[in-house]
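Annotators were shown the component list below and the corresponding predicted structure, then asked to write short factual statements about the assembly.
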Amino acid sequence: AAGVIQSPRHLIKEKRETATLKCYPIPRHDTVYWYQQGPGQDPQFLISFYEKMQSDKGSIPDRFSAQQFSDYHSELNMSSLELGDSALYFCASSLGPLSYTEAFFGQGTRLTVV
Amino acid sequence: SQQGEEDPQALSIQEGENATMNCSYKTSINNLQWYRQNSGRGLVHLILIRSNEREKHSGRLRVTLDTSKKSSSLLITASRAADTASYFCATDATTSGTYKYIFGTGTRLKVLA
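Structure shown to annotators:
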Protein backbone atom coordinates (compact mmCIF):
# COMPACT_ATOMS: atom_id res chain seq x y z
CA ALA A 1 0.00 0.00 0.00
CA ALA A 2 1.17 3.50 -0.77
CA GLY A 3 2.50 5.46 2.16
CA VAL A 4 3.37 9.05 2.86
CA ILE A 5 6.48 10.01 0.92
CA GLN A 6 8.86 12.65 2.14
CA SER A 7 11.80 14.10 0.33
CA PRO A 8 14.60 14.49 0.77
CA ARG A 9 15.31 11.94 3.48
CA HIS A 10 18.40 13.78 4.61
CA LEU A 11 19.41 17.38 4.19
CA ILE A 12 22.42 19.32 5.36
CA LYS A 13 22.31 23.10 5.26
CA GLU A 14 24.39 25.91 6.62
CA LYS A 15 23.13 28.56 9.00
CA ARG A 16 21.06 31.27 7.34
CA GLU A 17 20.36 29.09 4.31
CA THR A 18 16.92 28.04 3.12
CA ALA A 19 15.49 24.54 2.99
CA THR A 20 12.40 23.11 1.34
CA LEU A 21 10.91 19.84 2.50
CA LYS A 22 8.32 18.01 0.45
CA CYS A 23 5.52 15.70 1.44
CA TYR A 24 3.38 13.51 -0.80
CA PRO A 25 0.33 12.19 1.08
CA ILE A 26 -1.30 8.83 0.69
CA PRO A 27 -3.48 8.89 -2.45
CA ARG A 28 -6.93 10.39 -1.79
CA HIS A 29 -5.83 11.84 1.55
CA ASP A 30 -6.79 15.49 1.68
CA THR A 31 -5.14 16.54 4.94
CA VAL A 32 -1.47 17.00 5.64
CA TYR A 33 0.32 17.65 8.93
CA TRP A 34 3.88 18.74 9.67
CA TYR A 35 5.76 17.88 12.85
CA GLN A 36 9.21 18.68 14.14
CA GLN A 37 11.06 16.27 16.42
CA GLY A 38 14.28 17.38 18.06
CA PRO A 39 16.78 14.85 19.44
CA GLY A 40 15.20 12.92 22.30
CA GLN A 41 12.04 15.02 22.07
CA ASP A 42 8.46 14.20 21.25
CA PRO A 43 7.05 15.34 17.91
CA GLN A 44 5.84 18.93 18.01
CA PHE A 45 2.97 19.98 15.78
CA LEU A 46 3.85 22.73 13.33
CA ILE A 47 0.97 23.18 10.90
CA SER A 48 -1.74 21.34 9.01
CA PHE A 49 -3.69 21.77 5.81
CA TYR A 50 -7.07 20.49 4.73
CA GLU A 51 -8.15 20.81 1.13
CA LYS A 52 -5.28 23.17 0.42
CA MET A 53 -6.23 25.57 3.19
CA GLN A 54 -4.36 25.97 6.45
CA SER A 55 -6.44 24.22 9.07
CA ASP A 56 -4.41 24.49 12.25
CA LYS A 57 -1.19 26.04 13.41
CA GLY A 58 1.14 25.08 16.18
CA SER A 59 4.55 26.24 17.27
CA ILE A 60 5.82 27.07 13.82
CA PRO A 61 8.45 29.84 13.68
CA ASP A 62 7.73 32.84 11.49
CA ARG A 63 10.78 31.84 9.44
CA PHE A 64 8.88 28.75 8.32
CA SER A 65 6.02 28.67 5.86
CA ALA A 66 4.10 25.87 4.27
CA GLN A 67 1.42 25.26 1.72
CA GLN A 68 -0.59 22.47 0.20
CA PHE A 69 -0.84 22.32 -3.56
CA SER A 70 -3.65 21.33 -5.90
CA ASP A 71 -2.35 17.75 -6.06
CA TYR A 72 -2.43 17.72 -2.22
CA HIS A 73 1.30 17.49 -1.79
CA SER A 74 2.76 19.93 0.68
CA GLU A 75 6.00 21.82 1.07
CA LEU A 76 7.56 23.23 4.20
CA ASN A 77 9.85 26.16 3.51
CA MET A 78 12.38 27.08 6.13
CA SER A 79 14.44 30.24 5.84
CA SER A 80 17.28 31.79 7.81
CA LEU A 81 18.07 28.38 9.22
CA GLU A 82 19.44 28.19 12.73
CA LEU A 83 21.38 25.41 14.45
CA GLY A 84 18.31 24.73 16.58
CA ASP A 85 16.31 23.84 13.50
CA SER A 86 18.26 20.60 13.24
CA ALA A 87 15.61 17.95 13.74
CA LEU A 88 13.57 15.22 12.17
CA TYR A 89 10.63 16.68 10.26
CA PHE A 90 7.63 14.46 9.79
CA CYS A 91 4.73 14.78 7.48
CA ALA A 92 1.51 12.87 8.02
CA SER A 93 -1.69 12.58 6.05
CA SER A 94 -5.26 11.61 6.72
CA LEU A 95 -8.57 11.46 4.95
CA GLY A 96 -10.51 14.19 6.62
CA PRO A 97 -10.16 15.57 10.13
CA LEU A 98 -8.61 13.58 12.95
CA SER A 99 -11.84 13.40 14.86
CA TYR A 100 -12.87 10.58 12.55
CA THR A 101 -9.74 8.92 11.28
CA GLU A 102 -6.09 8.22 11.88
CA ALA A 103 -3.03 9.90 10.47
CA PHE A 104 -0.18 8.04 8.83
CA PHE A 105 3.33 9.34 8.99
CA GLY A 106 6.14 9.42 6.50
CA GLN A 107 9.69 8.36 7.30
CA GLY A 108 10.73 11.91 7.95
CA THR A 109 13.39 14.29 6.67
CA ARG A 110 16.43 14.65 8.84
CA LEU A 111 17.63 18.22 8.63
CA THR A 112 21.07 19.08 9.92
CA VAL A 113 22.05 22.72 10.12
CA VAL A 114 25.78 23.33 10.42
CA SER B 1 2.39 22.17 28.05
CA GLN B 2 2.04 18.60 26.89
CA GLN B 3 -1.37 17.23 26.06
CA GLY B 4 -0.07 13.77 26.71
CA GLU B 5 2.23 12.65 29.43
CA GLU B 6 3.56 9.14 29.42
CA ASP B 7 5.02 6.99 32.07
CA PRO B 8 7.33 5.44 32.58
CA GLN B 9 9.70 7.48 30.45
CA ALA B 10 11.97 4.47 30.13
CA LEU B 11 11.32 0.79 30.63
CA SER B 12 13.69 -2.14 30.43
CA ILE B 13 12.37 -5.71 30.47
CA GLN B 14 13.40 -9.21 29.52
CA GLU B 15 12.20 -10.86 26.36
CA GLY B 16 8.96 -12.69 26.97
CA GLU B 17 7.77 -10.33 29.69
CA ASN B 18 4.87 -7.96 29.30
CA ALA B 19 5.39 -4.22 28.97
CA THR B 20 2.84 -1.66 30.09
CA MET B 21 3.02 1.99 29.19
CA ASN B 22 0.64 4.66 30.34
CA CYS B 23 -0.48 7.93 28.85
CA SER B 24 -2.42 10.74 30.45
CA TYR B 25 -3.93 13.67 28.66
CA LYS B 26 -5.58 16.90 29.62
CA THR B 27 -8.47 17.76 27.34
CA SER B 28 -11.41 15.77 26.06
CA ILE B 29 -10.66 13.76 22.97
CA ASN B 30 -12.32 12.04 20.05
CA ASN B 31 -9.67 9.39 19.76
CA LEU B 32 -6.25 8.38 20.99
CA GLN B 33 -3.57 6.67 19.02
CA TRP B 34 -0.41 4.84 19.85
CA TYR B 35 2.66 5.03 17.66
CA ARG B 36 6.01 3.26 17.70
CA GLN B 37 9.25 4.86 16.68
CA ASN B 38 12.50 3.03 16.21
CA SER B 39 15.52 5.17 16.92
CA GLY B 40 15.57 8.13 14.56
CA ARG B 41 13.05 6.53 12.25
CA GLY B 42 9.46 7.17 11.25
CA LEU B 43 6.37 6.92 13.40
CA VAL B 44 4.49 3.68 12.86
CA HIS B 45 0.79 3.69 13.64
CA LEU B 46 -0.09 0.90 16.06
CA ILE B 47 -3.67 1.28 17.14
CA LEU B 48 -6.46 3.83 17.35
CA ILE B 49 -9.03 3.79 20.12
CA ARG B 50 -12.07 6.03 20.02
CA SER B 51 -13.46 7.89 22.98
CA ASN B 52 -16.48 5.57 23.17
CA GLU B 53 -14.28 2.47 23.32
CA ARG B 54 -12.74 1.09 26.47
CA GLU B 55 -10.43 -1.59 25.17
CA LYS B 56 -8.96 -2.67 21.89
CA HIS B 57 -6.70 -5.51 20.81
CA SER B 58 -4.35 -5.94 17.91
CA GLY B 59 -2.12 -8.98 17.94
CA ARG B 60 0.10 -8.73 21.02
CA LEU B 61 -1.11 -5.20 21.71
CA ARG B 62 -3.86 -4.28 24.10
CA VAL B 63 -4.95 -0.70 24.58
CA THR B 64 -7.32 0.59 27.21
CA LEU B 65 -8.88 3.99 27.50
CA ASP B 66 -10.40 5.56 30.59
CA THR B 67 -11.93 8.88 29.58
CA SER B 68 -13.00 9.63 33.15
CA LYS B 69 -9.36 9.56 34.21
CA LYS B 70 -8.11 10.90 30.89
CA SER B 71 -5.65 8.06 30.59
CA SER B 72 -4.75 5.19 28.33
CA SER B 73 -2.46 2.22 28.60
CA LEU B 74 -0.63 0.15 26.05
CA LEU B 75 0.20 -3.42 26.95
CA ILE B 76 2.62 -5.42 24.83
CA THR B 77 2.48 -9.08 25.73
CA ALA B 78 5.27 -11.61 25.29
CA SER B 79 7.71 -8.89 24.31
CA ARG B 80 10.46 -9.45 21.78
CA ALA B 81 13.78 -7.74 21.21
CA ALA B 82 12.25 -6.24 18.05
CA ASP B 83 9.76 -4.36 20.22
CA THR B 84 12.61 -2.15 21.43
CA ALA B 85 11.51 1.35 20.43
CA SER B 86 9.92 4.52 21.74
CA TYR B 87 6.17 4.47 22.10
CA PHE B 88 4.07 7.60 21.89
CA CYS B 89 0.43 8.29 22.50
CA ALA B 90 -1.19 11.03 20.46
CA THR B 91 -4.52 12.69 21.03
CA ASP B 92 -6.70 14.93 18.96
CA ALA B 93 -8.50 17.84 20.55
CA THR B 94 -12.17 17.25 20.97
CA THR B 95 -13.19 20.11 18.74
CA SER B 96 -15.09 18.74 15.79
CA GLY B 97 -12.94 18.78 12.71
CA THR B 98 -9.68 19.05 14.57
CA TYR B 99 -6.55 18.98 12.48
CA LYS B 100 -3.72 18.18 14.82
CA TYR B 101 -2.43 15.52 17.14
CA ILE B 102 -0.64 16.31 20.31
CA PHE B 103 2.01 13.78 21.25
CA GLY B 104 3.01 12.66 24.68
CA THR B 105 6.61 12.54 25.78
CA GLY B 106 7.01 8.89 24.90
CA THR B 107 8.20 5.77 26.67
CA ARG B 108 11.52 4.28 25.63
CA LEU B 109 11.17 0.53 25.81
CA LYS B 110 14.17 -1.73 25.78
CA VAL B 111 13.60 -5.47 25.52
CA LEU B 112 16.62 -7.50 26.48
CA ALA B 113 17.22 -10.79 24.72
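Statements collected:
1. The interface with chain A takes residues 2, 30-31, 33, 35, 40-45, 48, 88, 92, 94-106 of chain B (CB under 8 Å).
2. The two ends of chain B are 36 Å apart (CA to CA).
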